[in-house]
Amino acid sequence: MITNASAAQIELLDLSEPTFPITPALAAKGKPNSVSLTPEVTALLDSNCVVAIGVSGGKDSDACAIAVSRHLDAIGHTGPKVLIHACLGVVEWRESLDGCRRLAAHLGWELLVVSRKAGGLMERWESRWESNVQRFEDLACVKLILPWSTPALRFCTSELKGDLISAELKKRFPGQAILNVTGVRRQESTARSKMAVSGPVKKLQRKNAAGVFWNAIIDWPVEDVVYAIVHAGLPLHEAYTRYGMSRVSCTFCIMSAIADLQNSTTCPDNQSIYIRMCRLELKSGFAFQGNRWLCDVAPHLLPDELRAQIPAAKAKAAKRVEIEATIPAHMLFSKGWPEAVPSWSEAVQLAEVRSSISELMGFQAQYTTPQSIIDRYTYLIEQRAMGVGIQKATRRAA
User: Fold this and answer.
1) Which range of residues forms the domain containing residue 291?
2) What is the value of pTM for the model shown?
3) In the predicted model, what is the mean pLDDT of residues 242-262?
C-alpha cells in the first residue's frame, strides 16, 4: 500500500496491448474461440453453480459474456446466471450502462447493477483528499497522501467493484457456490499475462459454499474479442468506434495511455468530469498519473480560473516533494503507525517540515513544535501496542 508516496514517486503503468483502432473491421482478422477451463471450473459448472459475469460495457466483458453463455448452453448448465455491473458514477462513459443492458437483453440474462452508497469514484477521490488533509493536520501521517488511486493501490477496483460485487452476490445467492467470471486477457499487460485461469476469491467464499474467479477468455487475442461481438450482432462501445479509445473503463483512468486520455476529452459528455478531476488535481497538488498532469492533456477545456492555477500548483507540488525529501526514513509511518519516537533534533526537523507544508498548502496543522511531535509519536506507539486503530487513536487525541 502506498500511503506516503509523492507524485514523483508513483510509476505510471500503461497497459501493453497494442493500441491499434478497435473497429468492427478488426473482426476480419479474428476467428471463433472457446473458453479456457480448469478442472475446478468444470466441476463447479457440472454442479450447476451460480455463474456471475462482471460487465463494464467494454469489449472484453462483452466477448466474455457471449463466449460463456454459449458454453453454458452447450453443456446444459441449468444453474443461476447473471451479469453484474459495478457503476462508478460520473467517471463512467455515458454509454457503458446502456451497453450492459443491451448485452443482457441479447443473452436473455438478468443484469444486476451495484454502486457505492456514498457516491461514485469521483466522490471517493474527493472525500479521500479531505480525509488525507485531516490526517496530515492530525499527524496521522507524515507525508501528505494523494487523493487518486494508483497502480499499486487500486481501491477504485477493490472498493467500488470487487467488494460491492462480492457482497451483492453473497446476498443474492446465500449458500450457493459462485463462479465469478471476468474478461481479463493475458494480452492486455505484463501483469495480466501471468494471471491464472481460475482460483479462489476469499470475499466470495462462505462455509460450505465456494467462491471462485474464472478468467474465461484469458488467452484470446483482441481480434477474436471483436469477432465474437460483431458476429453476435452487437455494436462496439462508441468509445472505440467514435472516439478512438483502446480501452473502456473510466473516462479518465489511472492506467490510461496518453492517447486515450486525449481521445476521451474529445467526447463532449466527458468534459465536465475532466474539469472536475483537474480541479481536484490542482487543489491537491498531486498529478493524476505520477508525473503526468491531467490538466496538461486538454488545458483549452478548462475555465480561465483553473488554467491560471496550473503553474502555481505544479510549483507547490515540486516544493512539497523537496520538503518531504528531508524527512528521515525511519520517521515515516509504516502501515499507518510510527515505528520509533523521534529524537529532539529529529522532532525539530519534523516540526519545520510540518510548518512549511502547512503554510505552503494552506492547512491548519497541529503538532508543529518538537515537544508536541515527540508526545504525539509516543502516544501513537502506545495506542498501537494496546491494539487501538489509528483512526480511533487520532479521534481521541484531536
Assistant:
1) 266-320
2) 0.90
3) 94
